[in-house]
Amino acid sequence: MSHTTALRAVARGVCLSLLVSALSPALAQFRRDAPAVSPRIPANAGLSTELSLAGKPTTADYIIAVVNNELVTYTDVDKRVARLQATVQRGQQLPPADELRRQVLDALIDEKAQLAHAKTLGIDVGDAEIDATIESIAMQNQMTRAELKRRMEADGLDFQRYRTSLREQILLQRVREREVGARIRISDDEVTAFLQSEPASQAETALNLAHILIAVPEGATPEQVRTLQAKAQGLRDRAAQGANFSELAKTQSDDRGTREQGGSFGLREASRLPELFVQAAQNLQVGQVAPLVRSNAGFHVIKLVARENTAQATYTEQRARHILLRSSPQQPAGDLVKRLADIRRQITSGQGSFPQMARQYSEDGSAARGGDLGWAPPGMFVPEFERALNALQPGQISEPVVSRFGVHLIQLIERREVQLTDAQKREAARNVLRERKFESTYEEWAREIRAAAWIEMRDAP
């Protein structure tokens, strides 16, 4: 990918504030119907749950472009640019201001054209899904839905406009996954050729690492460095002793790029991770925390969440149980969170076991089995559930987790390494090939959708 293309991808990847991360297509219950492609659409990675409303308008607004019947305004561009500037990582360099605004405008025009296309296909996002997503965002920011609404209004964001923006972002991801995924075809011959001709690619270890960054500012004094190192070491010791790594990362990490995901980078080939991190995780078992690591950015607390090595043909499975309370207009998610928090207190204080509570309260089909979900490979659960599960040590119980299906209380029972079957090896190879084709296929599709749209550019008044 060229430098210019990469910059365009970054600009396209920054979405409106307060949007939920890692949104996924329709799912059966809380499990995926089948392993899904991880789309390399940069916009997906920019969805944020941070309560920062950068880009609040300070000048008179006006229309910059009309795309079919959708409007792009000066404020739309302003907010997206401000969001991008606020989230740029150390070492990244943004283009000059004029070029950045042009790239952001291009990205917004693409989005409006794709939204119009989604509507012509009849793709929709229901109010119940939006409500569940908002509840999840509120929980991640440790506040109620009402508090979230008041916070947004105090920062100048209309709540209904926010709901509309959230719906649009979900629609964008949904239409991209549906349309782009349908264009990618991987033949059996391609899979066989990949397995025979690319042993190096197959043998590469994939790691899911999570980290907490305690940043050391440039020009820090030795005393400041010692203080920050002591803070990082304290967090490392807490994580190694079983503290919830995800929560520590959300509240303590200085890396805004991974903080919202509990510090997790997601499952990536080792070659796509910082070499320093890969070396730190080299001798770790899944779930262990590495000794403190120092980089130019600061001190890192690193945890190995999962490891897959196709050379050894194994992957990490997790066995969990849960209690599910389904939300409804009569039973809003906020009330269910309180109920499950109380159930959690009863379990942790010894007033009842998790299986007993699951049989008594859970509204899921697994209730009769004490909430036991059996063994599951990576990607089987919806993102909110999977993130919470990955952050647990065996025996630990999560805080209440909101998903589109209700509110969950999750306990990790155990993890294990499992041998891949030949069919799974072929499916893994197919997914690698599909991912390789996704970005170029998406770019081609986006150009076609834009070319078919009616676009009118307008001058500033």
From TrEMBL:
Q: Where in the cell is it found?
A: Periplasm
Q: Which residues form the signal peptide?
A: 1-28
What InterPro entries would the database entry show? OMP_Chaperone_SurA, PPIase_dom_sf, PPIase_PpiC, PPIase_SurA, SurA_N, Trigger_fact/SurA_dom_sf
> What is this enzyme's EC?
5.2.1.8
Q: Which UniProt keywords apply?
A: Chaperone, Isomerase, Periplasm, Repeat, Rotamase, Signal
GO MF entries:
peptide binding; peptidyl-prolyl cis-trans isomerase activity; unfolded protein binding
Q: Which GO terms describe its biological process?
A: Gram-negative-bacterium-type cell outer membrane assembly; protein folding; protein stabilization
Q: Does the keyword ATP-binding belong to this entry?
A: no
Which residue ranges does the record assign to the PpiC domain? 204-306, 315-414
The protein's enzyme class: isomerase
Q: Which reaction does it catalyse?
A: [protein]-peptidylproline (omega=180) = [protein]-peptidylproline (omega=0)
GO cellular component annotations of the record: outer membrane-bounded periplasmic space
| Described function | Chaperone involved in the correct folding and assembly of outer membrane proteins. Recognizes specific patterns of aromatic residues and the orientation of their side chains, which are found more frequently in integral outer membrane proteins. May act in both early periplasmic and late outer membrane-associated steps of protein maturation.
| Domain free text | The PPIase activity resides only in the second parvulin domain. The N-terminal region and the C-terminal tail are necessary and sufficient for the chaperone activity of SurA. The PPIase activity is dispensable for SurA to function as a chaperone. The N-terminal region and the C-terminal tail are also required for porin recognition.
Name used for this protein in its record: Chaperone SurA
